Structure to design on (1371 residues):
């Protein structure tokens, strides 16, 4: 980068540099700006981050409704469980000891009045009944007063009350000791009944039952001592002579047999009162259901807690902020085995993003390091590196083709028109003096050279009437304005809209329809980037070719075509040509004598020369000169986005052709430039459809770092410069080899996998911090290229030291030594060494790149002479994701990292104190374009990326999703978490307690979703990572988060299940204390309740797999209980069954309504989601949940084992691999069998045995493959629901309409949840039921059910059917 000139250092009266206009003051470095109050040279917000007007209203409305329902939810949810515990309503019972009574004597005096005193009732009346009671024993003499009741019967089976006292005192006996009690007719003594057999029983009791019975009321017969503590009776035939009356039972000498009146036992009777028994009559199934619902309810409380803290972030608010200052931006994509089509779309999106970041609205200076991070060493590495060079050549040549020719206009005339003298400002013509070396460390430690490729436009000569052009690197005149656009760049004349721009107004247009590029301090270019298939021919997909028969091609001669094509782009160059190559063939069809007659001399004159591509040359471009390239790349990106959903990425060749056919060259280039640009594109296509052979295996146990870079300096007049470094990096990887293969080196044996330094580990010496920062990257690469093996630990007076020896301890395959280091052991402290490959997975790659990015930042800061460190940001874009909103990704994220220039605090008020409000991460949601509506596995995971991330953003406790994230890594202690295979969640959990994490609801990248099997493996990996993270958190200081949530859970559990009302009152007190704490936090400038919200986020992230396990309660336990046992849990009585109604109203409805409030926020905040069917999004997540038990169980087993291996044996948790035996292995084994010369040779049988071994290994591996387990589990669930319906209808609930209805509802819902996944994993089922299921087959299934049920129930028989058939056919 060229040094700052003296006249660039201007300041205004306040000591602050003002960004001058193009002609008033030249471009200047922001590094000269004074930084007061903060030690780090950072990104400063020139204007604050403010919310839009509609945002405040929507958020106030939705959050108010949310908080009201949340309050209702947390207050009433314990009452639902308390109702379940107390809803076992029982009738109070009492017991009476039935004992013999013998001390009551009855004396009667009768008078027969011809038996007619009973009036209408034929019978007798007993006059003057006298009861003489002696020595009566009372159950409670002090508290009870005995009373009398009289019962009568004529058959000893039917008994009636025959005494109804008119006065209360007539029913009571005066004393317990000895008394005579007389009953007269006047007191209500009634008729006895028939004239023959009559039984009369006197009942002495303490409950005054005589007053409760009416005269003649039917009563319960003997034994009478269940209600009487003394009883006696008489019997006789009052109206006829006893000799004439038949004998009747139990009557001896006018006295009833005592054994017939009483029973010597204890009896229980209903008192008539009811009561509720707490936690009674609840079986184990109901307890399981209650506990499941309890934890689901508590989980909902934790899930919705972040909304208590604040409002979600609005993307539009960032656009009100202009930033200035200095920063280093790094963007990396770890590539493993992605194909060329995915690689190309990633390159396009990344490149456009670079230009829109550099040419964005902010007044910033910085360095942008874009790195392709190759993870797979050896196989495919040479080809990927070659493709990266091909892309860099393509960009460089197009940038030179589109560069403005200084001879296209009269500079003096233009200066006069603009009011400037001929001695106006000029660019500094000094050539870039920064280092032009590509620090590449190969196997031999030497710098590798760039791939020597022929370039199409390098030696192109096309007739042109203008003067000879000059390279963008050569001396060039300053252009005052873009108002005169060159006619040969169509995009700048017919699409671009040149507008002036100040620093505080006329902001660039942002969005998906229009692009903007700030080319200098005075001008911004707004252009329509909507390139559709109608604009670009040949963008359709399919087997039939489409030609771009543009007029400009049709009128050219074969000679002109030949002059602009190099050998690789010649006609017929390659066996398989896409539309872009066939377009070159169409040129030869023109036969006009004068192909240039109608093109305004565009192709007449001297040719234009373009310098060839040199990978070792640092380049300098003016932002205005890059306008055609940027417009073309932006249009290409828009064309891909428009057709992305139609591209078949399963077929690499077809996808590549579709992407290349979408390139809108004709829109942004014309004339000779179009021909040269087309030829560059053809060369790029040749590179991507070709294949570079990998280098011969070097046979060494380590692949050192391979790094190459190309530097661009992008100049914007009146604005700070940007250094853009395009780089390719393959990080060092260890290659496990046996001691024999390494020549049996001395002990200890090499440890190729270890996360801790111990004997045998492979390490490197950390570069000295005192080394000059100008060479920091080279020193870092050189240090990692010189590896050592740890021999042993030793003690010294200075403490523990490590004795190491140079490694590998073997010669190269050609006999040369690995390096020229002294093989003698050396002693180093632990602080001087680090593991060369501490972690093999993605987290390890990100940490390596993070260290290198800091080295590059230190080098750039030193070269620019910037005092102090700068903010360093690292973006992660996974290989399968293409940046689709280049103007948003960095430009709208940086304001949330920006700081106040005076205080160093965050420019965005997050409601936190200054010590904790700095943003550490900005996360964009993921979006997948190749997922259709049949997303039964929830491959898009849209519910998490939109709804739940927006919810968590209210508390600024966002969890990174791995890609589409920007991290600030300025702090030298920052590192990506390696405690599990989900480094995104682990890193978020590591830093959100101290920093802010923001979610910006905009789909800035388009991803390619994994296939079915790969996606199931992915969700299994996430679940396993959560288990690993759970155990690592248990053994870390963050265990306190579990303790805090455990205390809250215990209080909530006691309020739900505790019998005392005190526990519910305690829960209400906790809620009140929480509200007071939230108010206190807000009053003191803190984000309300962020501490418990952080804890809840950590608990939810690390324990969500528990909810997957309990899915079996709803999918298995309850259907079986209803269908096979005819028992609906918690429904023994009508009172208890109301629990399900209260649960639906108070436990399920409020979370659904609160979710709808979050959905409304998402519709407002998330661009392009206002017409989404969020209900379908939530349904898809429920479908995956229903079938998640199999892979979740496997993840618990695997994750727990891995966590303990990492804890006690230093195993690496960041690496994972596929479970299946690859198809390539099967193909290779089968090819060996097919190539065998004879079936009788030993080689044939050996190859056959190898093939069978692969088959056996595949079968055994299937038991640990999550996709296979999930496949069979889904089929089991589907079959179980059908079985439960059949059993309930035909066996257990026959005749019980309620039981059948409940079975159909429960099993029918479960069937809807699992049938789509079952059909997806078992496509053969569609041969039976169709897809979607056809009504004919559904009715046929129901018909079979009816027929079989009739046979099983015995309602009909085959013989009866035979008779019916005979009758129907009249046979």
């Amino acid at each position: 980068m060229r040094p700052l000139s003296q006249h660039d250092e201007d300041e205004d009266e306040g000591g602050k540099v003002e960004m001058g206009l193009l002609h008033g003051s030249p471009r200047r470095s922001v590094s000269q700006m004074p930084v007061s109050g903060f030690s780090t040279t950072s990104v400063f917000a020139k204007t604050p981050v403010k919310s839009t007007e509609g945002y405040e209203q929507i958020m106030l409305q939705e959050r108010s409704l949310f908080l009201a329902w949340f309050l209702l939810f947390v207050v009433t949810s314990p009452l639902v469980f308390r109702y379940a515990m107390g809803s076992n309503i029982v009738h109070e019972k009492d017991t009476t000891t039935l004992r013999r009574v013998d001390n009551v004597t009855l004396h009667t005096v009768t008078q027969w009045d011809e038996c007619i005193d009973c009036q209408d009732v034929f019978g007798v009346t007993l006059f003057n009944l006298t009861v003489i009671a002696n020595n009566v024993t009372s159950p409670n003499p002090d508290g009870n007063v005995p009373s009398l009741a009289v019962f009568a019967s004529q058959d000893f089976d039917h008994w009636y009350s025959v005494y109804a006292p008119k006065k209360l005192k007539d029913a009571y006996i005066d004393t317990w000791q000895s008394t005579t009690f007389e009953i007269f007719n006047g007191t209500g003594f009634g008729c006895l009944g028939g004239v023959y057999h009559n039984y009369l029983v006197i009942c002495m009791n303490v409950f005054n039952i005589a007053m409760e019975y009416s005269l003649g009321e039917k009563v319960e017969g003997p034994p009478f001592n269940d209600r009487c503590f003394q009883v006696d009776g008489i019997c006789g035939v009052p109206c006829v002579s006893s000799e004439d009356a038949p004998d009747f039972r139990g009557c001896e000498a006018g006295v009833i047999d005592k054994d017939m009146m009483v029973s010597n036992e204890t009896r229980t009777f209903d008192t008539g009162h009811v009561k509720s028994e707490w936690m009674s009559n609840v079986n184990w199934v109901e307890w399981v259901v209650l506990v499941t619902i309890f934890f689901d309810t508590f989980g909902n409380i934790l899930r919705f807690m972040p909304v208590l803290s604040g409002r979600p972030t609005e993307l539009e608010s960032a656009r009100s902020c202009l930033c200035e200052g200095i920063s280093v931006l790094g963007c990396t994509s770890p590539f493993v085995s992605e194909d060329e089509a995915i690689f190309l779309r990633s390159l396009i999106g990344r490149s456009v993003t670079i230009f829109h970041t550099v040419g964005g609205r902010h007044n910033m200076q910085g360095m942008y390091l874009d790195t392709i991070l190759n993870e797979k060493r050896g196989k495919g590495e040479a080809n990927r590196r070659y493709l990266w060079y091909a892309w860099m050549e393509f960009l460089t040549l197009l940038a030179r083709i589109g560069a403005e020719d200084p001879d296209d206009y009269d500079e003096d005339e233009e200066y006069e028109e603009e009011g400037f003298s001929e001695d106006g400002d000029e660019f500094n013509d000094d050539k870039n003096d920064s280092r032009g070396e590509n620090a590449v460390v190969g196997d031999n430690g030497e710098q590798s050279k760039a791939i020597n490729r022929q370039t199409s436009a390098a030696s192109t000569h096309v007739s042109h009437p203008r003067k000879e052009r000059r390279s963008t690197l050569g001396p060039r005149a300053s252009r005052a304005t873009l108002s005169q656009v060159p006619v040969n760049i169509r995009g700048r004349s017919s699409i671009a809209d040149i507008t002036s721009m100040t620093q505080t107004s006329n902001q660039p247009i942002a969005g998906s329809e229009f692009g903007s590029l700030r080319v200098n301090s005075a001008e911004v270019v707004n252009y329509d980037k909507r390139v559709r298939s109608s604009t670009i021919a040949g963008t359709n997909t399919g087997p039939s070719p489409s030609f771009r028969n543009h007029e400009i091609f049709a009128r050219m001669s074969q000679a002109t075509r030949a002059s602009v094509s190099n050998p690789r782009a010649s006609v017929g160059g390659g066996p398989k040509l896409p539309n872009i190559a066939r377009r070159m063939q169409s040129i030869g069809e023109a036969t006009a004598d004068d192909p240039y007659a109608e093109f305004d001399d565009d192709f007449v004159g001297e040719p234009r020369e373009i310098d060839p591509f040199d990978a070792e040359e640092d380049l300098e471009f003016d932002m205005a000169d890059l306008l055609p390239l940027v417009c073309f790349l932006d249009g290409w990106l828009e064309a891909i986005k428009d057709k992305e959903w139609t591209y078949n990425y399963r077929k690499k060749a077809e996808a590549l052709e579709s992407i290349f056919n979408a390139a809108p060259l004709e829109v942004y280039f014309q004339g000779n430039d179009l021909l040269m640009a087309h030829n560059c594109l053809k060369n790029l296509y040749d590179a991507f459809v070709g294949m570079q052979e990998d280098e011969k295996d070097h046979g060494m146990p380590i692949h050192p770092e391979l790094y190459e870079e190309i530097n661009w300096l992008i100049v914007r007049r009146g604005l700070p410069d940007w250094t853009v470094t395009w780089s390719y990096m393959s990080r060092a990887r260890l290659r496990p080899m046996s001691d024999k293969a390494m020549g049996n080196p001395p002990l200890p044996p090499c440890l190729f996998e270890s996360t801790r330094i111990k004997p045998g580990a492979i390490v490197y010496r950390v570069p000295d911090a005192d080394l000059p920062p100008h060479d920091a990257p080279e020193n870092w690469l050189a240090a990692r290229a010189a590896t050592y093996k740890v021999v042993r630990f030793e003690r010294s007076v200075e403490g523990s030291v490590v004795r190491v020896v140079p490694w590998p301890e073997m010669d190269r395959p050609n006999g040369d030594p690995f390096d020229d280091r002294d093989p003698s052991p050396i002693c180093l402290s632990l602080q001087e060494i680090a593991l060369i490959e501490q972690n093999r997975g993605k987290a390890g790659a990100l940490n390596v790149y993070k260290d290198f990015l800091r080295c590059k930042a230190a080098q750039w800061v030193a070269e620019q002479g910037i005092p102090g460190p700068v903010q360093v940001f690292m973006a992660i874009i996974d290989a399968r994701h293409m940046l689709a909103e280049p103007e948003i990704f960095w430009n709208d994220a940086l304001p949330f990292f920006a700081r106040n220039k005076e205080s160093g605090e965050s420019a965005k008020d997050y409601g936190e104190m200054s010590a904790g409000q700095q943003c550490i991460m900005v996360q964009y949601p993921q979006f997948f374009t190749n997922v259709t509506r049949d997303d039964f596995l929830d491959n898009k995971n849209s519910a998490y990326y939109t709804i739940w991330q927006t919810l968590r953003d209210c508390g600024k406790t966002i969890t990174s999703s791995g890609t589409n994230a920007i991290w600030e890594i300025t702090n030298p202690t920052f590192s990506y978490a390696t405690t599990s295979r989900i480094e995104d969640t682990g890193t978020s959990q590591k830093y959100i307690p101290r920093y802010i994490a923001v979610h910006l609801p905009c789909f800035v990248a388009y991803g390619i979703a994994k296939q079915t099997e790969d996606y199931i493996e992915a969700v299994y990996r996430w679940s396993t990572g959560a288990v690993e993270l759970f155990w690592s958190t248990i053994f870390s200081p963050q265990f306190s988060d579990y303790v805090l949530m455990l205390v809250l859970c215990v209080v909530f559990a006691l309020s739900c299940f505790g019998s005392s009302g005190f526990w519910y009152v305690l829960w209400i007190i906790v809620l009140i204390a929480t509200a007071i704490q939230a108010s206190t936090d807000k009053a003191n400038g803190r984000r309300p309740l962020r501490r418990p919200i952080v804890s809840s986020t950590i608990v939810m992230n690390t324990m969500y797999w528990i909810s997957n396990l309990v899915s079996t309660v709803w999918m298995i336990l309850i259907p079986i209980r209803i269908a096979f046992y005819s028992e609906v849990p918690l429904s023994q009585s009508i009172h208890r069954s109301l629990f399900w109604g209260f649960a639906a109203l108070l436990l399920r409805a409020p979370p659904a309504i609160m979710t709808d409030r979050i959905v409304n926020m998402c519709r407002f905040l998330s661009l392009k989601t206002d017409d989404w069917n969020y209900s379908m999004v939530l349904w898809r997540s429920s479908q995956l949940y229903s079938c998640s038990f199999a892979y979740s169980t496997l993840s618990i087993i695997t994750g727990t084992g891995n966590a303990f291996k990492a804890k006690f044996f230093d195993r690496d948790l960041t690496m994972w691999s596929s479970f299946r035996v690859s198809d390539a292995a099967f193909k290779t084994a089968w090819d060996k069998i097919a190539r065998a010369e004879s079936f009788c040779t030993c080689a044939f049988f050996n190859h056959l045995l190898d093939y069978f071994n692969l088959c056996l290994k595949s079968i055994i591996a299937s038991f640990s493959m999550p996709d296979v387990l999930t496949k069979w589990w889904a089929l089991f669930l589907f079959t179980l629901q059908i079985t439960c319906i059949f059993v309930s209808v035909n066996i257990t609930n026959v005749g019980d309409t309620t039981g059948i209805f409940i079975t159909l509802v429960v099993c029918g819902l479960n069937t809807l949840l699992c049938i789509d996944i079952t059909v997806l994993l078992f496509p053969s089922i569609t041969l039976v039921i169709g897809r979607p299921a056809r009504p004919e087959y559904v009715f046929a299934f129901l018909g079979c059910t009816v027929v079989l049920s009739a046979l099983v129930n015995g309602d009909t028989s085959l013989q009866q059917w035979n008779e019916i058939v005979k009758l129907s056919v009249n046979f």
